[in-house]
Design goal:
By secondary structure, this protein is of the alpha/beta class. It folds into two domains: 278 residues, FAD/NAD(P)-binding domain; 141 residues, FAD/NAD(P)-binding domain, CATH 3.50.50. It contains twelve helices and 25 strands. Strand 5 and strand 6 form a beta hairpin. Helix 7 packs across helix 8. The longest helix is centred in the middle third of the chain and has 25 residues. Its cofactor is FAD.
Length: 489
């Protein structure tokens, strides 16, 4: 069928032009060069998260050497980078790889309907001018894990009823917000709050980070690219080696924390104590109640978070909020924090699939109410894959293994002349439900009913680490607990 006609069928349609979508597109055109694919992006620019978020200091929370792509290494001499630099990197990579010409911007998928008779997905797509239909044999959701339209609502007593100042969520930072000389309180203790504090302190009169409980914070030297490796090897080779070294470093750090939690706690807290000003105590502000990596460790490049505390324009409080007044936060320990601006850095609202209404043979399904096959496909959902990253490593490494697995599966289907594949739970084993993200963060706990689950056996288990998963992706079974059908050519 001629391309552009109403009945034209694509081999693959990818949803989302962020890291996930670009990764999937690269692997498809590399391993299946004669496949016809399309990448649909609902917004008007590439980059996903890094184009959406505009709060001061927005930056990666993992190193760009592993956050970048293996086929196009990050080549700046810094590990943690700002959002604009990440968007530039993604755009440049997509253009160099020939992916950019496959992207259709301002194409938002409203609904996706699978027909078992036709063995096709039919997509209802809203464009700037009209609504159209597209058809594809295989659908890949590279939409990320959170809701682009609505933030996670902070459950804070008196915030909406009593407080009369400015309330901001980092996901929707106003372009015209002027906080110069203002008193700012950031509610939260994760990577976003730790990024915001030193950046807001540059213009605000004072910034307070208010947390219910502390998190682990680790300073890292943000300068890379100056080692002997870079002096001896070509630039591209050297940065590829940097990528591998950062992969191993994070895996070693994660496993050391898991195996030796008390030693890890002592090391992390000891490093923090050396950077604090004398008037800021470790307890209760920097002694987390959980073990290292029960939640993610937050990184502060070159210790900028602690530098702001030492500078006197930033402060940290650890307490629960009792209520709000018109211009203050009243804490349960009796303290009052005056505020002109409150930033609710309390996490993101989970949403798999970007609000696409999905039906199978006219029956609407909930993607989150499914077990995940190899953290890539979903129980009883044919010819559909989703991209999900790691919690103990960079997002990109997770979508890289998923992308390669999908391509290997598509190659197998082509070789065997299969037209559809659907994961089925084994009947002989009772499946034990486990979270796909084993993380003790509040926003993850709240999301357990909105994200797929993992099991305890075979390909239904969750991810372990990148190198194990990469081996399984390349050499593990491509047929276990999958049902194939040879139908339409």
């Amino acid at each position: 069928m001629k391309k552009g006609s109403p009945n034209h069928v694509y081999d693959v349609i990818i949803v989302g032009a962020g890291i996930s979508g670009i990764s999937a597109a690269h692997h498809i055109q590399k391993t299946l060069p004669d496949s016809e694919y399309l990448l649909l992006e609902g917004r008007d620019n590439i980059g996903g998260t890094w184009d959406l978020f505009r709060y001061p200091g927005i930056r990666s929370d993992t190193d760009l050497h592993t956050f970048g792509f293996g086929w196009q290494p990050w080549q700046e001499n810094r590990a943690i980078a700002d959002g604009d630099s990440i968007v530039h990197y993604l755009r440049t990579t997509a253009e160099r790889d020939g992916i950019y010409r496959h992207i259709q911007f301002q194409h938002r998928i409203v609904a996706a309907s699978w027909s078992s008779g036709l063995e096709l997905w039919t997509l209802e797509v809203e464009t700037k001018a009209r609504r159209i239909q597209l058809h594809t044999k295989f659908l890949i959701l590279g939409t990320g894990y959170y809701d682009y339209n609505e933030p996670l609502r902070a459950e804070i007593p008196g915030l909406s009823n009593n407080f009369r100042g400015t309330i901001v969520h980092p996901q929707f930072w106003p372009k015209d917000l002027d906080y110069t000389g203002k008193r700012v309180v950031i509610i939260g203790s994760g990577a976003t709050a730790i990024t915001l504090l030193p950046n807001l302190a540059k213009k605000a009169s004072h910034v307070t980070m208010l947390q219910r409980s502390p998190t682990y914070i680790m300073s890292i030297d943000n300068t890379t690219g100056g080692s002997w490796i870079h002096k001896l090897l070509p630039r591209t080779w050297a940065f590829k080696l940097d990528r591998w070294m950062f992969m191993w470093m994070i895996i070693i750090l994660y496993n050391f924390c898991r195996l030796f939690p008390e030693r890890s706690r002592a090391a992390l807290e000891g490093a923090v104590a050396k950077q604090l000003p004398k008037d800021v105590p470790m307890d209760p502000h920097f002694r987390p109640l959980y073990k290292p990596w029960d939640q993610r460790v937050c990184f502060t490049p070159n210790g900028d978070f602690f530098e702001s505390l030492r500078g006197g324009k930033a402060h940290i409080e650890t307490a629960h909020i009792k209520t709000m007044s018109s211009d203050s936060i009243i804490l349960d320990n009796g303290k009052t924090l005056e505020a002109d601006v409150i930033v609710t850095a309390t996490g993101l609202k989970f949403c798999l699939g970007g609000h696409i209404r999905i039906t199978i043979d006219d029956e609407e399904i909930n993607l989150a109410n499914r077990y995940a096959w190899n953290a890539t496909m979903l129980q009883d959902v044919p010819n559909l894959a989703f991209m999900m990253g790691y919690v103990n490593a960079s997002w990109t490494l997770g979508v890289e293994t998923s992308s390669q697995l999908v391509c290997r599966l598509l190659q197998h289907m082509r070789k065997k002349h299969y037209s559809s594949v659907v994961p089925r739970l084994p009947k002989e084993f009772p499946m034990e439900r486990r979270p796909i993200w084993d993380l003790d963060a509040t926003y993850v706990k709240k999301a357990q009913g909105f994200i797929p689950r993992c099991g305890n056996i075979g390909p239904w288990r969750g991810r372990t680490n990148y190198f194990v998963d990469l081996w399984k992706t390349r050499y593990g079974s491509i047929t276990k607990d999958l049902v194939f059908r040879a139908g339409r050519p």
